[in-house]
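Step 1: inspect the first sequence and its tokens.
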Amino acid sequence: MITEWLIYPTAIAAGLLGGVIGFGTSILLMPFLVQLYGPIKTIPIIALIAIVANSARVLLWWRLVDRRSVFYFSVSAVPSVVVGANTLVRLTPQLVEICLGVFLIAMIPVRRWLAKQAKHLNPPHMMLVGAVIGYLSGIVATTGPLNTPFFLALGLSKGAYLGTEAAASLVMFAAKGLRFHQLDVIDMQAVSQGLIIGAFVFAGSTLSKRMVLALSEQTFMRLMEAVMLISGLSMLWMAVA
């Protein structure tokens, strides 16, 4: 019961965090949702919440969105996310929890490494990125931490990065939600909860715009890594508890 009441203020905070650093909304909400609905149902609920959250970021930064990069990313991400979703429904709940926790923690050093390696990308390169990210997105609740270095490597920053990454993710999560519906993983409870929680996330996202330009890059990185570590450890604890 406590968790049910906590989810709504947490959703506002998650929307604010995601609006500032480009991801984190799903990561922050995941432990609460897994406790309430279980790991399998959490994935489609997160997909619906992500659609709302990314829609808010696209609206906030619409004029700065790199549409070519979004197009190339989406071309490969949409079919890949369908393949990933098909994989998810064959996994056991405990295995999903462990995968989520390990994935989040592992993305801390991986993100740092990718940030050093991916220095110059062009929009067509995003087709390969979309294929990998799309498949992973079908299996795990969020790939925002992995998206970040690739979209930054396009030369995008702050508002342009936030809007472009959100637009690409919006297309991918829409395909993901549709596939989950076809697989009967999503039911009316998942839809209603995803939209209700998403409304609180949207409210938090609208508060983020003024904060974006005031934050330094170092603060961005600290926020991202702290959220990833805490949420990843929480998921692993729930898997073995």
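Step 2: inspect the second sequence and its tokens, then contrast the two.
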Amino acid sequence: MSLRAVLGYVGLLVLAVLWLLPLGAWAGADFPHHMLRHMGLVAIVTPLLVVGFPQATRLFALSPLAGAAVEFVVVWGWHLPGLHGWADGGGAGLVLEQGSFAIAGLLVWAGALRADQPLAGAGGLLLTSMHMTLLGALIILAPRDLYAEICGRAPDLDAQQLGGLLMLGIGTPVYLVAGLVLVARALDDERGLA
């Protein structure tokens, strides 16, 4: 089995862990669990699937900018209190939220990792990193729990801030490192042509 395939299967394993293990009990609150699942899906699972199964994920390889734009709309949309509350209730809302996160993540990573456009891919990852960092910072710095009332639970600003920190701590380094790898690849390609 190739290293690529192993990475794809690791992505599937991480996906199973995110959905099958009682992470909510370990996280101690709903919002950090939500953010761990969300960031695991878009920043860990989907890039591993794209690298591991390039043929199966090829149809998601649109332009890096289009992928970043779709992910922006999806991620910010699902973090509006009304949509977040619907997804927090489980059922169709949760399935639609997680499915759209997965598709958006696949669009970002499949577009960014296309071998023919490493600088465009780095740009798409930079844009994604910027909007994720901004959203994480807004969640951390909010003066009150944004989601407690709509989700029908007691306010827990500490849990919300932990969720924002998870968004920053997972997303920012993953997108930044991947973007730098793509820039290095582009520079190596240019040196090879010279």
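Step 3: confirm your contrast with the notes below.
Residues 3-193 form one domain. The chain has one domain: 3-193.
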